[in-house]
Predict the 3D structure of the following.
Amino acid sequence: METMARGKGREKYFEKVREKNKSIPDEVLRILLRQKYHIAGEHSAAKICHWTHSVLTGGIGCYKSKFYGIASHRCIQCTPVLLFCNHACVFCWRIMPEKSLKFEDMPAKHFKWDEPEKIADWIVEAQKSIISGYGGNPKVDKRRYEEALNPLHVALSLTGEPVIYPHLERLIEEFHKRKMTTFLVTNGTFPERIEKWKTYPTQLYVSMVAPNEEVYRKAIRPKSPMLWRKYLKMLELMPKISQKTRTVLRMTLTRGVNDSDLEGYARQIMVAQPHYVEVKSMVYVGGARLPQRGLSLSSMLTIEEVEKIAQQLAQMTGYIISDKHELSRVVLLCKDKEAEKNRMKIWRENLMP
């Protein structure tokens, strides 16, 4: 009886979400809801972050907390492009716009982009709804719970390629109007859009996931082979963007896939000159475990291996090894002493728990 009740409850919730969203296919929507995505409008979503849960229940924060000083329990993990991406990275753990590794499965018929003002409101409300579920948890500190209900950071990185959303700059502005910091993760394939922005995120991440074009085509499986050139253009733009906001190149290393040719990575770092470089192992969870991806648990690098690669890149580029987050298997490189000094800068008072 209890199982039947839960089944009816899930179906009722599905129908409730279905009434508000017309673009996501039923099968995909059911998967998203099972994975605890909170759908916001036609193409956006928020989802509880592992590290938000960790801090709320008395654990440690994420690497962004350790490296840059954000409050993990007050950060929203979200996306304005739930099912839209022009990459199909073999190591991606998130749900991708494909069933059989095809881009054609993305919902595009009868589709209209939501306005950024509405998306910002929906995502904040979705986060509050997520956090409200912790109100009765005895492990949750009351003060942190109340703080979490007032989020301060937005990580536009949950899934998809955010810059595909044509009004992303306005969405960033909307969050800034709400006195929230923004962390945007892009794969760098839309330099022509980003170059025109007047408002940049608080911190701009560009994914550096292949040392050369050959690895890029094989491991990242771009929608078009021309995207490599666009990515290189983005790297060329980054020194100028770094004068306007904080910039990061973020690596996702997978054993035997994209962990070779460190000279290629070093050249990209020297072109982009970001404030920070995050050297990180992939994580063997979610979609990365699909048999057709060809990966295994051993595809992950140990923190010691990540540290060794970081040391090599530091020697090649002159960047400084500054910190590490062992559970995330990530090491932070800083461009220079000034970047290292400023990495823990607090954008608003009393952010830290």
